[in-house]
Input
Amino acid sequence: MIDKKNIIGIILAGGKSSRMGSDKGFLQLNNKPFIQYSIEALKPLVSEILIVSDDAKYDTFGLKRITDFTKNAGPVGGIYSGLEASKSELNLILSCDIPLITSDVLQKLIDAVDDASDIIQAESNGKTMPLIALYKRAVKGQFKRFLEQDERRLRVVVKGCRYNTIVLDEAFQNATLNVNTKEELKQIEDAYND
Output
């Protein structure tokens, strides 16, 4: 059993949200900002939560905020910045736009930790989810090298590391829904109210 004091939670909240038109971390579901759901899912499992964002508005959550080392480098840059700031070998990394996420899903990633993988990502609805994943701090160097080569596609970077994928059963499919458009926001509201 892995002790939570050995795990840090990292929430990526630096996205431009160009399709949504507003900062996704502050979108509301049931009068609660999206990022709050990520915080609540992580809290029982980690010793500390870091938010990676250049936006000082996230300071209202009372958590340590990390700014991006590499500006405009997307999630690859955000993950690298989070791992650079982390003091822990194990890091649960989430995006801020998955309001139905649960601690149960994250526990499955922790339970799958092994010596052969540096990244353990969820898969749901046939799609891998590198932003619902556990990253070992050991991959920091690889992320840095990819950034230096100007590689910004997270899936390409993950494939360049030792990774494992945990397929979530149907019961957890809504938990991984993320929001990029107003239509998807409506879909999540419907799923939340079911």
